[in-house]
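Lab notebook, design round three. We kept the backbone fixed and only want residue identities now. Task for the bench partner: fill in a sequence for the structure below.
Input structure tokens:
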């Protein structure tokens, strides 16, 4: 199935060579945790995950056509 992936801020470089066009083909029953593994994202750098605009956990099972946004920790003041 095909997913649309968008990584933000310091995570963007992890798309290089894997899904530079923002799309990723994966097997059915793929979870957010699998996407983190596929993209080789450091666990401590994945803070928020949104699927189709809704906050989800890493155990969320994805469906074809889902839009996934992954954000790192953000500091500010």
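Proposed sequence:
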């Amino acid at each position: 199935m095909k997913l649309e992936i968008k990584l933000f801020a310091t995570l963007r470089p992890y798309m290089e060579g894997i899904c530079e066009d923002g799309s990723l083909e994966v097997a059915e029953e793929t979870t957010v945790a699998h996407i983190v593994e596929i993209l080789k994202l450091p666990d401590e750098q994945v803070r928020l995950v949104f699927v189709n605009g809704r906050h989800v956990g890493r155990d969320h099972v994805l469906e074809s056509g889902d839009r996934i946004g992954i954000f790192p920790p953000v500091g500010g003041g």
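Keep this in mind before ordering anything: The two ends are 40 Å apart (CA to CA).
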